[in-house]
Specification:
- The chain is α/β, with parallel strands linked by helices.
- The chain folds into three domains: about 160 residues, P-loop containing nucleotide triphosphate hydrolases (Rossmann fold); about 180 residues, P-loop containing nucleotide triphosphate hydrolases (Rossmann fold, 3-Layer(aba) Sandwich), CATH 3.40.50.300; about 90 residues, 2-Layer Sandwich (GMP Synthetase, Chain A, domain 3).
- The chain has 14 helices and 15 strands.
- The strands form three sheets. A six-stranded mixed beta sheet has the order 2-3-1-4-5-6, sandwiched between helices. Strands 8-9-7-10-11-12 form a six-stranded mixed beta sheet, sandwiched between helices.
- Strand 13 and strand 14 form a beta hairpin.
- Helix 12 crosses helix 13.
- The longest helix is centred in the first third of the chain and has 16 residues.
């Protein structure tokens, strides 16, 4: 499970700039304007082999009592509650303010691990000009420049060192308990808890006709046909602007972590609501995480034939990137279509953890090249020599040869189709990586 780092501080201290630096993205809007960020913003970061989730927040005023500032304060409080460690950002050039003292008092009362960061500290003498920030009584002041990247690496190391289990993720992930971890994900009120209760044959989870009944990711052990499962009922993901209630503080981050820790993600879509942007967002996150996906359209019995046709057309267009995922139409309440759904989940898990021998991969690769060669790019024609498996869940195929950087996306999709057909891969993304051999004469030619 990835550790979570929350960035908090008063407006315009550079939290969004630091967020973009940590996630190596431009997802957060940055401008010299106070109060630009208002909602929580989530992103993935990596340093070496250690991965983490970063939460960007709006300007924090702990005692805000009305208007947009009160809602921004709620968002920040939720981010702090979700986080394993808090990075408190202050402005090294503007100096200490009364608002910094208020935030520091709030963080000290919580007792959560906190790193005090003085941003915009490029060219400043740490010992002299940053001394005033020790008044906040939050330990050593870390000087960074988010805009220039100075001190950011040591900041991440220090933050992750405050999370005892942050370095143990890869070890835990390698342990196989024999149980298939199945995350049931979807928008609020899609019927996730009802489906799990139907499987279990008891009212184990609260199921109510009101969005947001489930507030946390709940794991339930289950056995079927001799196979053990861990069913993870996730809280429904809403648009960030819709997440305001304090009780929902764990919903988003727990859902993202549940998807990443699962072997298979069952994406449940409400037939009465159709395919929405949020369904596509959840599906995209599962695909980005490399998880196997099974699509289930719940409440299929509640719509007429015309609505069914429109829904199928919407799935083809809005979820086109999930063509590899099997599609099933079910009714959790009436127990319809659940048998084939279990078969699809088992097939998706088998495909995600499939072992592909090197001789078979190489044979399929050479047969594919013989059937259709990659196009020449300028004076280069890619030459593929052999392939081997580079990982599982999702399966990764590594192809070696010469001039492989010129292989087109269309040819890559052609190869993916051939490999999928050979190994009967369904429900799982397949990643193909190319490694070009070094040309020993390249340096001599340049000379």
């Amino acid at each position: 499970m990835k550790p979570v780092i929350a960035l908090v501080g008063r407006p315009n201290v550079g939290k969004s700039t630091l967020f973009n630096r940590l996630t190596k993205s431009r997802d957060a809007i940055v401008a010299d304007f106070a109060g630009l960020t208002r909602d929580r913003h989530y992103g993935n970061g990596r340093q070496g082999k250690r991965e983490f989730i970063v939460i960007d927040t709006g300007g924090f005023e702990p005692d805000a009592s009305a208007g947009i500032y009160r809602e921004m304060a709620k968002q920040t409080q939720q981010a702090v509650a979700e986080a394993d460690v808090v990075v408190f950002v202050v402005d090294a050039r503007a100096g200490l303010s009364a608002q910094d003292h208020d935030i520091a008092n709030y963080l000290r009362r919580l007792g959560k691990p906190t790193v005090l960061v003085a941003n915009k500290a490029e060219g400043m003498l740490e010992g002299v000009q940053l001394a005033e920030f020790y008044e906040l009584a939050l330990g050593e002041v870390q000087a960074v420049s988010a805009a220039h990247g100075q001190g950011v690496r040591s900041l991440v190391d220090r933050a992750l060192d405050l999370v005892p289990w942050a370095g143990e993720e890869s070890e835990d992930a390698g342990e196989d308990s024999g149980a298939i971890r199945l995350a049931v994900a979807g928008r609020p009120n899609a019927g996730k808890s009802t489906l799990i209760n139907t499987w279990l044959g008891e009212e184990r989870l609260v199921a109510f006709d009101m969005p947001g009944t489930t507030r946390d990711a709940i794991t339930v052990p289950f056995e079927r046909g001799g196979q053990r499962y861990e069913l993870i009922d996730t809280a429904g993901l809403r648009r960030r602007g819709k997440v305001f209630e304090a009780i929902e503080k764990f919903s988003v981050v727990k859902t993202l972590q549940a998807i990443e820790s699962a072997h298979v993600v069952l994406l449940l879509i409400d037939a009465t609501q159709g395919v929405t942007d949020q369904d596509a967002h959840i599906a995209g996150y599962a695909l980005e995480s490399g998880r196997a996906v099974v699509l289930a359209i719940n409440k299929w019995d509640a719509i007429d034939d015309y609505q069914r046709q429109m829904l199928e057309r919407s799935i083809e267009t809005r979820l086109a990137f999930l063509k590899f995922a099997p599609l099933h139409f079910i009714s959790a309440k009436k127990r319809q279509g659940l048998g084939p759904l279990w078969t699809a989940i088992g097939e998706a898990y088998r495909s995600a953890t499939c072992k592909m021998p090197t001789p078979v991969l190489t044979r399929v690769l050479l047969e594919s090249v013989q059937f259709q060669s990659p196009k020449r790019a300028g004076g280069y024609r890619p030459k593929m020599r052999y392939a081997h498996q580079g990982g599982m869940n999702p399966p990764v195929i590594v192809i070696h040869g010469n001039s492989l950087e010129h292989v087109s996306d269309a040819y890559k999709r052609f190869l993916e189709g051939r490999f999928r057909k050979e190994f009967k891969l369904v429900g799982t993304p397949l990643r193909i990586e190319f490694k070009t051999a070094h040309n020993p004469y390249a340096d001599k030619q340049d000379a």
